[in-house]
Amino acid sequence: LPDELRAWRGLNPRTLRSRPEETLNHLQTMGNWVVNHWFSVLFLATWLGLNVFLFVHAFLSYEKADKYYYTREILGSTLAWARASARCLNFNSMLILLPVCRNLLSFLRGTCSFCRRTLRKQLDHNLTFHKLVAYMICLHTAIHIIAHLFNFERYSRSRQATDGSLASILSTLSHQGKEEDSWLNPMQSPNMTVEYVTFTSIAGLTGVIITIALVLMVTSAMEFIRRSYFEVFWYTHHIFIIYFIGLGIHGIGGIVRGQTEESLNESHPHRCAESFKQWDDHDSHCKHPRFEGLPAESWKWILAPGVLYILERILRFYRSQQKVVITKVVMHPSKVLELQMIKRGFSMEVGQYIFVNCPSVSYLEWHPFTLTSAPEEDFFSVHIRAVGDWTENLIRAFEQQCSPIPRIEVDGPFGTVSEDVFQYEVVVLVGAGIGVTPFASILKSIWYKFRHEDHNLKTQTIYFYWICRETGAFAWFNDLLASLECEMEELGKVDFLNYRLFLTGWDSNIASHATLNFDKATDILTGLKQKTSFGRPMWDNEFSTIANAHPRSVVGVFLCGPQTLAKSLSKCCCQYSSLDPRKVQFYFNKENF
Fold it and tell me: How many angstroms separate the Cα of 508 from the Cα of each of 470, 474, 505, 514?
């Protein structure tokens, strides 16, 4: 349950009467949440509805169809459970690759540039949807496996039965029939074990392989592993190739079988099932039923998205092989490396990101980094902070001045939510630590727009918040902020950019030093005119001030930072947006890679 709605759960009728203002705030928060997220809710409801429809439709088809009457005599209702979950597995496997086709998303973002803001925002939830689809695949995989465990057990039990029941007779048809389409039970002898069928049949062996692949991918994608051991996540996630190959050929064996159409017309189960003991009689109108394996379906579901993803990877490989020239290398405080590069045909927008590979560090690993340069500049740049083995090795390679500069490969750029920043009248930018990088690109672009007197700039005011743990981090973009200060003063637009710097990691010595020098014209820590604040922003006060200053504006809130901060900002956006669409509206946007 979203934080914006969780508080509503605790209200009771007594609270409604005794605290009307609090009730009104809760109602407004809930209303704003629904207004801002209605399309996301509709999209998820449609996806869930399709899953329910496919499951129920497949379940009823296998539970009621005459074609599978004899199959149900052996397996019971677990046949329908296995096939219904397989249908949903195919559907979600078809969807799982689409949210990670980054070129496709960038293309859709470009074509939707004139669409409503609510529609464009759905593209920013691509990774969230990718995870939801993965969870749905895990759910139906579990149902499918459990159902087939029962199926194999019932196959084995009916093959060993000697009671002369219909199930036991059907299980021996493989020996009585001379044609290939006579058998129904894959257990060819009473001594055959479930394990033997599992590991000697195409369906069983591929089922085991894709299940192991799925378990490895899901477990290695957990938040802790992904952040602490990115290489494990990166390499293990590429097992998806094995998953899709196994899924495509999983149904080729045709273990689950149904009665052929010709046999149905000749010996319909409603007419002949009760007289199964007379099937061998020459004068009987009912003959032994004949069966056929179900045709493989999975490949039909995954073929189109698979081809699309292959084209995506071919395009990314082609672009990554284009030569990249490093024009400048800068080492900033707090182990941050700045690379300025040029590449023929490279074109970018503010807030976009690229994937970077350094073959001398790792030939296969590609890592995303936000572009910190502006589209108006004749180069593109990234700032890379040492947060893991790969980044530390990369920085170490560039610090070794005796050796030649390492070769860099670049794929991208790819679009993000920050591309829409200039579509808002008022913009709130919130960066945490190195999360300031997309906003550096935005602020640089603004500087160029003012220098070239761009009259098409829709944005009227920008509020910029930068939260850092250590003072050295502010040095990354000190020059940029100082230039913007001077530029705004020269143009008489001091109120256009309102920025606040917050230091969360400090001791008494730093605080005392800042207090003694507070009366100076510039901040003692950064050298900027804006003084550094100690602690974290009081977001309620900040949003209240912005809402009062812009009572009829559309405010875009952009964050590149941790999830805990995202929850706080999202809640404030809902709380301080007016239910009247003509008044102030806050729209929350978060960077996702």
Answer: 14, 19, 11, 10
User: CB-based contacts of 149: which residues, under 8 Å, 6+ apart?
Assistant: none
Tokens of 7: 């508080």
pTM (predicted TM-score): 0.78
Q: Please tell me the total number of residues recorded for the chain in this structure.
A: 593
pLDDT in tens, the chain (593 residues): 444 444 444 444 554 455 554 444 444 544 544 555 667 788 889 999 999 999 999 999 999 988 888 888 888 899 999 999 999 999 999 999 999 888 888 777 766 554 556 666 777 788 889 999 999 999 999 999 999 999 988 888 888 887 778 888 877 876 444 455 678 888 888 888 888 888 888 888 999 999 999 999 999 988 888 877 878 888 899 999 999 999 999 888 778 888 888 888 888 888 777 777 767 666 667 777 888 888 888 899 999 999 999 998 898 888 888 888 988 888 877 788 889 999 988 888 888 888 998 888 888 888 888 888 888 888 898 888 887 788 888 888 888 766 678 889 998 888 777 777 888 888 898 888 777 777 888 888 887 887 777 677 788 888 888 888 777 767 767 777 777 777 777 767 777 888 888 888 766 666 676 666 666 766 666 667 777 778 888 888 888 888 888 888 888 888 888 888 888 888 888 888 887 777 888 888 887 76
Phi, psi of 137 (to 5 degrees): -60, -40
Cβ neighbors of 159 (< 8 A, separation 6 or more) are 168, 171, 172, 185, 187, 189, 190, 192
Across 507-538, b (16+ Cβ under 10 Å) vs e yields: eeebeeebeeeeeeeebbbbebebbbbeeebe
Interatomic CA distance for residues 587 and 65, integer angstroms: 51
- What type of residue is 17? R
Q: Which residues lie below 8 Å from residue 305, measured CB to CB, with a gap of 6+?
A: 94, 95, 97, 98
DSSP 452: T
Sign of the Cα torsion 433, 438, 441, 446 reads negative
8 Å CB contact between 76 and 63: no
Contact 462, 497 (CB under 8 A): yes
Contact criterion met (CB below 8 Å) for 242 and 219: no
Q: How far is residue 152's CA from residue 76's CA, in Å, rounded to a whole number?
A: 12
How far, in Å, CA of 119 to CA of 122, rounded? 6
